[in-house]
C-alpha cells in the first residue's frame, strides 16, 4: 500500500538507547520536582504514565506512517521524544523544549543526517498545533493523529475512570466519563486526516460507545446524562 522501503538511519539498538534516555529523563523530571508540585496526584503527571503513553504513541504512529507512506524513522523518533519535556516544562512550552532536547540528543549521539534531525525536531515542536493537520508535514500529522488516538482508546478511558477516584466521585459517574471519551472520539474523527488513523478512530469510538451502553444496561440508575465537567484539565493530557 504505497509503502516505500528506505534505508533506516536508526538501528534497533539506537532506538532502544533513545527509549532509555527518554524514560530516565522523565523519571529525573519527577524526582527533581518540588514536593507536591504540578498536580502530581493525577496519574498523567507520573513518569510511568507518561512513558507508557509515549510507547502507545510510538506504536500507533508507526502503524499510521507505514500505511500512509511517511518516513517511519522520523515518525517513530519524533513520537518517542514528543512528550519528553512534559513533566518539566509548562504545557504551552513542552513541545518547543522537547524539540530542543531531541535535536541535542540526535546531534550528539551517532551520525544522523541533518535533514533527519530537523524533521524530527519540527515534528516534536509542532505536535501541539491546534490548526488544520494539512498545514503540517506528513510525519508530524502521523504523530498528532497517534497522540489523539491514545486519548480515545482503552488508555484514555482508563485514565478518566481512574480520575473519578482522585476527584472523590463514585462509580455512578462512570458512564458520564466514558461518554466524554465518546465525545473526544467524535471530535478526533473530525480532525484526523489519514485513512489509517480514521479507521483506528472508528474502531475505538465503537468500543467506547459499547462500553457506555454496557454500563447503562447493567448498572441500575447508571446514565451518561449530565456534564462530567472535565474540560478544564484536558490540555494537561495532550
Ligand atoms: Fe502526547
Essential attributes:
238 residues, 2 domains, binds fe (ii) ion
List the helices and strands and how they pair.
Elements (H helix, E strand, L loop, with lengths): L11 H20 L15 H22 L3 H10 L12 H15 L5 H13 L11 H14 L2 H13 L7 H18 L3 H24 L15 H4 L1
Helix pairs in contact: 1-2, 2-3, 2-6, 3-5, 3-6, 4-5, 5-6, 6-8, 6-9, 7-8, 8-9
Overview of the structural elements:
It is globular and about 60 Å long. Mean pLDDT is 88; it is low at 1-5. It has 238 residues and is an all-alpha fold. It has helices at 12-31, 47-68, 72-81, 94-108, 114-126, 138-151, 154-166, 174-191, 195-218, 234-237. The protein folds into 2 domains: 12-130, Hypothetical protein af1432 (Orthogonal Bundle); 150-237, no CATH class. 64% of the residues lie in helices and 0% in strands. Bound molecules: fe (ii) ion. The site of fe (ii) ion has 6 residues, from α2.
